[in-house]
Amino acid sequence: MYTIKLDQFEGPLDLLLFFIKRDELNIYDIPISKITKEFLEYVEYIKMLDLEVAGDFILMASTLMHIKVRMLLPKEVDEKGEEIDPRAELIQALLEYKKYKEVSEELTFFESNQRKVSFRGNYDHDEKISPPEYDILLKNVTLFDLAKAFRNAIEGVKPVPVHEIQKINITIDEQIEFIMSKVNEFKEIHFLSLVHGMQEKIRIVITFIALLELAKAAMIGIKVSEDFNDFVLYKLENNG
Amino acid sequence: MDNIYISVIEALIFSSDDPIPAQEIIRAIKGIDGEDIEINIADVDSVFDELNKKYEDNGSSFRLLRIAGGITFGTKAEYAKYLGYLSSEKSKRRLSQAALETLAIIAYKQPVTKPDLETIRGVNSDYILNTLLEKNLIMISGRAETIGRPLFYSTTDEFLKYFGLNKLSDLPKPREIDEIMKDEDFLEQKRKIMMNLIEDVVAKETGESEENNDSTIE
Amino acid sequence: MDNIYISVIEALIFSSDDPIPAQEIIRAIKGIDGEDIEINIADVDSVFDELNKKYEDNGSSFRLLRIAGGITFGTKAEYAKYLGYLSSEKSKRRLSQAALETLAIIAYKQPVTKPDLETIRGVNSDYILNTLLEKNLIMISGRAETIGRPLFYSTTDEFLKYFGLNKLSDLPKPREIDEIMKDEDFLEQKRKIMMNLIEDVVAKETGESEENNDSTIE
Asked: What residues are paired with C63 via a beta bridge?
């Protein structure tokens, strides 16, 4: 057996290509018995070395055995009546693998050349001014914008210590009326100014629910305000 | 000093990850071309001036700076707004690690509530959730039936677009990632088992089963 | 395009830590100076040539390169040995033959699944895929619709950068199988391997650091 360094081979296909090249074999007429015998010798050797890749080599050994057995049996034919060479698949696999192996050798050149190029190492001292206004990208009102504005409104209410249970008489219908009157009066009104002066959180909550109802029923419109913690209610012309 | 070293010094400053001290420049040149090369700190200093004069004369947008005992390149102030525009654009596109972690938890466990998310991450996640909502990568998708009825968070279509996914089920499964990441020991184990199996097959095919000797595999 | 933008373009490229696409340069300029500024891709292309001519004329050690669909500054090859002396980055290991082979298959067949990759290579590729993912040379790019819906792998921009390619179509064309057959002696491959060997010997002699372990070529 030739002494070859096993770690030179990337796998069983690579090893088979080596045999074919070394013995100047015709890849389309591989002497399966000979090559199988030799391959198995190497598999024994690999197993002895307990190499990680042994499993893949044994799998190939088993493929070679299959082909060897099929070569001894009567020839199979395909639908066109042509004889099937049991080696055909293996040949295809070898050529396909070789194609990429060749390219990978070319890639080594690109790698070598590129290793000679260095890129700029330090960017810490470039002068930069980041304009904050470019961070604003929002275009449409989303549920989140709405919810955030609402939360800000809630947080704007100063907590007052309350010791007695107060009953607040307020209904959604009342607030719907309240909103409609404001919207009709001003055409446009910011949510924060709408709830300005409301002392109880529940009143703001009810007002908010009321405006959601109105928006859902297309009685009013809602759009973004320049202040992203707020939004604008506006009168819809067809309801005027 | 030989004039050929002007370009070498320029290249060394350009590619150094930190401001490079003159001493280091000299060390590299002597390290490659020999200790007897004539070059000293004063040479590096005059190359510094010479290069900066060249950049000034040909209207370059960068120049050499002395920072923390070393030399480095920096762009000039007049381009600051253009560079700032790009870097703010970039930071918008780049997700921070924390955001990515949060996004990942939401993506895999959705719908998920903030308390559940914070249990997993071990830190308060208000700010990150807000950022992700603002970037439209996640959305509020409902409410849990548990105490306090916390909000559910889920990922958006924008999220799928950001990661180039067609649908949520295209996300790599944690199991698949494990499989790629599992350590070599495990692979080794698997291979040994495989070897055993294939060996049996080979032995049977070749009718040599009686000689078969499994001594290589424990 | 106004000539003042030559320096702006130079600054934008110089200050970008990734190769910057011409589109992005235009976006930054229009973002700052207004959408009505006249500048287009052809302008950026001619500034590219103009600047490179300037660097060539005044003996600069770096020049503009087109990599991964963008523009970036890179040093000229003749300074590699000096830079390698100081930088551990440059003396890091080359990719192994197994890694190159796997990358070649992914690059040409992308997106490709692990089973397909392993069929071509004939070996288990978990470990190598993990390595390439960690190095950011490949990425998970989706899922096949075939049974088991295996993950798809594709190459990254980092891959293009590693090999100094502007786009995937700049990759060397694989030979057709018929052609491979004609060249039984694999003469071309032998010549290439020899050239690479010589290159490495030269590099070592000129003092690449001893950590540089080109284990791929014996």
From this structure: C74
